[in-house]
Design goal:
The protein is of the alpha/beta class. The longest helix is centred in the middle third of the chain and has 22 residues. It starts with 15 loop residues before the first strand and ends in an 8-residue tail after the last strand.
Length: 240
Amino acid sequence: MTTHAMDTMHSLPPNYRALVIGASGAIGAAMVAHLQRDARCAQVLTLSRHGTPPVDFEDEASIGNAAAQLREQGPLHLLIIATGMLHGAHGLPEKRLGQLSYAQLTASFAINTLGPAVALAHFAPLLARHERSLVGVLSAKVGSITDNRLGGWYGYRASKAALNMMLKTAAIELARTHPQLVVAALHPGTVDSPLSAPFQMARNKRPAAQAAGELLRVLDGLPAHETGSFWAYDGQRLPW
């Protein structure tokens, strides 16, 4: 799929406002760049762990503080949560049951599930109620229970599956107050980024800029009745 600047964001209102959480990551930064090139985007706000104000998904208070500081800046029409953890200080993804540990699992759920869910809880009130608005959250195809054929990667799979349930449940609730809102879980595929660097084959990886454009285009194309759904970067609907 060929990617371009965000000239396809036709369904959002003129002078729409966007917020990207996780803007310092590879995909988040690429999404910010796409949105900044869209002449119809009035403002792109960015939040990250080392930004101002900082948002750290292992520090719940930082999420609420950031939302409070942005509350007076007007309604948002596009919210992207572009965060995730596959490996970190506690090791690589678990291949076997015997490798499970509280430390690794706690870190996976904090970054992949709890942080995005609490962020949505705090930032959803900032979304426009009477205009089309979009929420896209980075999930992963390996979080699909139906699609799990290989096993392994326990914490990452489970935390992304839990994220998907959070998003589906939130979409049902938010549809009552935001009838034009679309909430979607998004699978970016294998992207050239620090998250997937230890595992990707060179022939499979895609530039972050390409992935960002594809994800934004898929999200933009979803009608309101598709809120609470799970999509891949190529427009394929994914099973829960």
